[in-house]
Each structure stands twice: as structure tokens, then as C-alpha cells.
Design brief:
The protein is of the alpha/beta class. It folds into three domains: 131 residues, 4'-phosphopantetheinyl transferase domain (Ribosomal Protein L22, Chain A, Alpha-Beta Complex); 55 residues, no CATH class; 193 residues, no CATH class. The protein is built from 15 helices and 15 strands. The strands form four sheets. Strands 7-15-14-8-11-9-10 form a seven-stranded mixed beta sheet, sandwiched between helices. Strands 1, 2, 5 and 6 form a four-stranded antiparallel beta sheet that branches. Helix 6 crosses helix 8.
Length: 406
């Protein structure tokens, strides 16, 4: 379970000369969109107070960057990753891009609070980091201590992603919260089979259905980019009841598991729910054929991939063996890649979310094109993970030596 603390853990201040922004408006008005969002420019108006308003917003961007000095120095985030928006009462808030949200997530920052002011000559902004607090359940703390399945792997993974930015106490709390998630997941899988169909459907809220249906209607097929988030089996099996018109047209890409009877049982359950199953090994022709029919392939993308299937691509700042086949298939077929994730809400219900399709990255060098798109897929996973960090599958060895074993 995650919640937000009331006390900030970091503060930054920045001041901007209003005359500097006035000169920019007069000399290079077309360059404003390089520094401000269209909404910020509209909110600043065109009157005498425009320069002061924009100066305050630019000070806010600079203050936000100061909160994450290392990522700013590395150019991981830039001023345009932060913008000032107003709520219904006119109070300023900070909106962030995906890149900034990932950086904030790796610092376990839930939000940034902002205060703006200006004099006749200067504008000042104060930015406060408000952290997420991780509150493990009793069951999570118990499992962490007495039944620590793969605890060393979980802690190693968490330290790789968060260790440079947060305390070891926060790392431990996040690991305990993850064990609590695993315990809840196990309970849900047992209870789920005894629920009525109506109860199953009401257990899940689905986001982004219109966009997904539109992708189906386009007839180009699609690749659904996902990972081991939340209770994906519950959210998908129950979630499809919210869009039954596509039953039989969504196919999960998965490896057979041992023992065979368990693999067969899981395949049967997916088929009964209205999903197809495609084997991952040696299935390229079947995948392409499925996409060419206009159907969707669900591609779990967060597992380690060894050569020749995998290539080293950045994942949370570290090289990780990542499947290149998704980029190859997407670029060859023109099928859109749609990120999807699921998570459990505090009240025990689930959300299955389909996000907008990723924009393909084109490059004259085919190898670079595959790598750059694969990196974009990893970044989409990072965004979903940092939003609900305790509900990702940290027990998996995501970072390994990519060389094939002899």
C-alpha cells in the first residue's frame, strides 16, 4: 500500500528577472513554445502581466530541476518536463511528463508542491518534494522476516532502481510491501474462482477501452506491451467482460511452464475467458499471422532475454537483456504498440489500463531503430512500475549477464 506524506523531504527556490522574459517575448516570441507549454502561454495572457506570469512559471521549472540535480546534470529531465497548471480555484500545481514522473518515482516522490510570487522586477518559485510513504501490511512484514522467498533478489533489484536516491529503510519498507502484495495476490487467485460473473466484472475498472477498440477497427492488429503488474490474471479475465466484442481476438504470448498439467490448466483458463495463447518459442510466423488478421498479441516485456533473442537495452539506468522481437514485429507489420498495466486500488478493486499507442521511432540504421524503439518500450514499463512500485514482480532476475550460457 502506498500513501502520501504531508511533510516535504526537499525544497528548492529559483528567481528569474522579469526583464529577461520581456526581452524573449519581444525578440523571439516563436521560441516561447520551447520553454513553456501551450497551456502556460494561454494562462499568462497577452497583457501587461504576461512577462511576470511567464517568469514565475520559468522559475518554477528551474526550481523543480534543482530538486533532482543529478538527473538534471545528466539531461535526463529538462525544463519542459515540468509545467504549471491551475486548478478550479486558481491555485498552481506542477504537471510532469513521463520522463519527469519516472525520475520522481525513482526518488519515491509522490508530487511536487509549488508556490509562486513576484515583485515589480523578479519572479520567484518555491518547489517542495512530497514523498510517498510505503506502509507494509502485517502479512508483508511477516513474510519478509519469516518466509523470505527470494529476498536477496528483491532487495538487489530494489537497490538497483532506488538505492541511489532513497534510504535503506525505505528500500526495506518497499520490499515488505511487495511481500504483502504477493500474499494478497495469492488470496485473490483462490477467492476469484468462487465469485459470480457479475462480481468478477465489478471487481475491475477498465481504462482506455475506446482507444483500444479504435485500434482493432483500424484492422492493422496491435501489440499490447505489458509486464507483471498487479494481479494481471484477475484484471484481464474480469476486465474483458467490459469489452466482450473482442473476445477471441486477444492472444497472450507465453512460454510453457512446468509441470505440463499446470501449463495446460492456465492455458485452458485463458481460453475459457476468451483469450488465445501463443507460444513464445518458435512462434514468429504465428504472431505475424495473428497480427495480420487484425488481432492483438499481449507481449509480457519485463522478463530477462538472453542472446540471440535479447539485446542489452537500458532499463532503469542499467543495461538489461530485452527482447528485440517486439520492435522487429512492430516495425515490419506497422502494428501499433499499446502499453497496458494493471494495479490494485486501496479498496481491493483492480484497474486495467490501456494507454495511448507509442509513436514509432524511425532511424536509417535498422539496428539503431530496433534499439531505440526497444528502449521506448522499457521506458513505458518504467512509468507503470514507479506508479505502483510494490505491485511489480521484483522477484524476477531482470538484470543478468546477457551472454548465452555454454
Amino acid at each position: 500500500m502506498t500513501s502520501t506524506q504531508q511533510l516535504p523531504d526537499g525544497c528548492a527556490v529559483d528567481t528569474v528577472d522579469i526583464a529577461r522574459i520581456e526581452r524573449l517575448i519581444q525578440a523571439m516570441p516563436d521560441d516561447l513554445l520551447k520553454l513553456f507549454s501551450a497551456q502556460e502561454i494561454a494562462d499568462a495572457g497577452t497583457g501587461a502581466g504576461q512577462a511576470a506570469s511567464l517568469a514565475a512559471r520559468f522559475a518554477a521549472k528551474e526550481a523543480c530541476l534543482k530538486l533532482f540535480s543529478r538527473e538534471t546534470a545528466l539531461n535526463t529531465i529538462v525544463a519542459m518536463d515540468f509545467s504549471v497548471v491551475r486548478d478550479a480555484y486558481g491555485a498552481p500545481h506542477i504537471a510532469v511528463t513521463a520522463a519527469a514522473e519516472i525520475v520522481m518515482g525513482r526518488h519515491l516522490v509522490g508530487e511536487i508542491k509549488i508556490s509562486l510570487t513576484h515583485t515589480a522586477t523578479t519572479a520567484t518559485a518555491v518547489a517542495l518534494r512530497v514523498p510517498k510513504t510505503i506502509t507494509p501490511s502485517f502479512g508483508g512484514r511477516f513474510l519478509y522476516r519469516f518466509l523470505p522467498y527470494r529476498r536477496a533478489v528483491i532487495l538487489e533489484n530494489l537497490n538497483r532502481v532506488y538505492g541511489a536516491n532513497v534510504s535503506q529503510g525505505q528500500i526495506k519498507a518497499l520490499a515488505q510491501a511487495h511481500y504483502g502484495h504477493l500474499l494478497t495476490l495469492f488470496k485473490e487467485l483462490i477467492a476469484f474462482r468462487f465469485l459470480s460473473e457479475a462480481s468478477k466484472k465489478n471487481l475491475v475498472r477498465v481504462e482506455g477501452v475506446p482507444g483500444m477498440i479504435e485500434a482493432f477497427e483500424a484492422g492493422r492488429g496491435m501489440l499490447i506491451l505489458t509486464g507483471h503488474f498487479g494481479n494481471f490474471e484477475v484484471s484481464t479475465v474480469a476486465g474483458i467482460e467490459h469489452f466482450p466484442q473482442v473476445k477471441g481476438r486477444i492472444h497472450f504470448l507465453r512460454r510453457p511452464i512446468k509441470p505440463k498439467w499446470l501449463s495446460d490448466m492456465l492455458t485452458r483458463r485463458f481460453n475459457q475467458a476468451g483469450f488465445g495463447v501463443v507460444g513464445r518459442r518458435g512462434s514468429l510466423e504465428e504472431i505475424v499471422s495473428t497480427i495480420e488478421k487484425g488481432d492483438a498479441i499481449v507481449f509480457p516485456f519485463d522478463q530477462f532475454a538472453r542472446k540471440p533473442e535479447g539485446i542489452p537495452v537500458e532499463f532503469f539506468g542499467h543495461a538489461a537483456g530485452t527482447f528485440k522481437s517486439m520492435a522487429v514485429i512492430a516495425l515490419a507489420t506497422g502494428a501499433p504498440v499499446i502499453p497496458a498495466a494493471s494495479w490494485r486500488e486501496p479498496d481491493g478493486t483492480h484497474v486495467l489500463s490501456f494507454m495511448p499507442a507509442l509513436t514509432p521511432i524511425l532511424d536509417e540504421d535498422v539496428g539503431a531503430e530496433i534499439t531505440r524503439n526497444t528502449r521506448a518500450y522499457n521506458a513505458a514499463l518504467e512509468l507503470s512500475i514507479v506508479r505502483h512500485p510494490e505491485q511489480w514482480w521484483w522477484v524476477h532476475r531482470r538484470w543478468k549477464d546477457i551472454k548465452r550460457k555454454k
